[in-house]
Inverse folding.
């Protein structure tokens, strides 16, 4: 079960303290540099409470003094900013054929990344590989284990035994086990488990094009096609962590109802190219083919427009996002082509005159999107209050 959809217990003193720290840290991150009184106004906390929290976080190393701001009456005001080395998030992405990892600091800057091939994706093999990735990240950066706030781990859904298993984009053998417990045992860290689309959405919020956005959708191209949703800065995971399995919804393609990811996904483009005798194993192959205007790839793009346009309309009308973002393991040029070719529906709640963002845009995190998103899950826990604020 993913961390984001656990039941939140009643508020007690320790949870209130944690919540207030999240409020202060989130205010500092949003502002870049900010004084105590401004934090108090932004968070609804008293100035004395803010002062106590800042003192604690200065001692912890999560905040640093950032000079004084002059202007107006009175003495210059002390400013505070995030200390990049005050904490780290470890991100692990488990794919059917590989493990990726990234270590990011509190500002979202990548300090280390690594990739290894998997000989098999049985839990025992994967857990050993994950532990090795953590060891390598700490060894290569010199970061102390006590400075790592936790590990975000992403893997393709669905989670649990469902009616859409064995689609070619899931992780066989993991449906009937507790991945969080096993991963915490291997990593000796708090672990947040999410699907790759949700984690990718979080990466865009922490360090990508969705910075400053609270409610948006992220259409993730992995092997299949997933959808990450953020509402008010928090992930929408569903009852069992499987919200956003949009690749399995039926759409019309060339007059026939089909599953969306059968015509709009990495799996579908690779299958189409394979039928024309072209082996496209990775993003570099797809980039090369697009640069060459390879007819089979352009043909696939043409056939993808209708179902892709329908999917955007479904996302907009169901979730009313500020924007729909495309990203993941698909070349930028291919995603830009889809954005240019899409027929955005007029009958959509997103078709409005007062928009501040385009309805559709490309993300910036590239092929490491889900891995960085896994690490961003950890930072989001530090920056985003998980209980309602008391005003």
């Amino acid at each position: 079960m993913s961390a984001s959809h656990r039941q939140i217990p009643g508020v007690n003193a320790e949870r209130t303290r944690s919540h207030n720290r999240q409020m202060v840290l989130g205010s500092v991150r949003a502002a870049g540099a900010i004084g105590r009184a401004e934090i108090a106004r932004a968070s609804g906390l008293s100035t004395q409470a803010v002062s106590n929290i800042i003192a604690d976080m200065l001692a912890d190393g999560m905040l640093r003094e950032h000079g004084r701001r002059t202007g107006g009456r009175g003495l210059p005001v002390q400013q505070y900013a995030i200390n990049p080395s005050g904490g780290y998030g470890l991100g692990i992405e488990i794919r059917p054929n590989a493990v990726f990892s990234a270590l990011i600091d509190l500002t979202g800057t990548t300090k280390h990344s690594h990739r290894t091939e998997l000989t098999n994706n049985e839990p025992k093999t994967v857990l050993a590989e994950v532990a090795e990735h953590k060891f390598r990240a700490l060894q290569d950066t010199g970061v102390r284990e006590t400075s790592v706030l936790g590990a975000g781990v992403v893997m393709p859904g669905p989670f649990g035994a469902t009616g859409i298993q064995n689609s070619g984009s899931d992780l066989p053998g993991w449906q009937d086990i507790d991945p969080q417990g096993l991963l915490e045992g291997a990593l000796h860290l708090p672990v947040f488990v999410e699907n790759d689309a949700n984690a990718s959405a979080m990466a865009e919020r922490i360090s990508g094009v969705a910075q400053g956005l609270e409610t948006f959708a992220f259409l993730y191209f992995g092997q299949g096609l997933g959808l990450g949703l953020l509402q008010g800065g928090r992930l929408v995971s569903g009852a069992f962590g499987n919200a956003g399995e949009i690749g399995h919804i039926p759409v019309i393609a060339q007059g026939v109802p089909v599953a969306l990811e059968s015509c709009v996904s990495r799996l579908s483009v690779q299958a189409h190219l394979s039928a024309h005798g072209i082996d496209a194993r990775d993003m570099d192959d797809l980039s090369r083919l697009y640069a060459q205007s390879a007819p089979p790839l352009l043909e696939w793009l043409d056939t993808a427009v209708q179902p892709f346009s329908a999917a955007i309309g479904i996302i907009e009308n169901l979730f009313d996002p500020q924007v729909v973002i495309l990203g993941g393991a698909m070349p930028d040029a291919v995603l830009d082509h889809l954005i240019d070719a899409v027929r955005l529906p007029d009958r959509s709640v997103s078709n409005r005159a007062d928009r501040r963002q385009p309805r559709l845009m490309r993300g910036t995190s590239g092929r490491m999107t889900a891995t960085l998103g896994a690490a961003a899950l950890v930072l989001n826990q530090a920056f985003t209050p998980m209980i309602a604020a008391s005003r």
About this structure: The mean pLDDT is 87. The first strand starts at residue 63 and ends at 69. Residues 209-364 form a domain with the Nucleotidyltransferase; domain 5 fold (CATH 3.30.420.40). The radius of gyration is 22 Å.
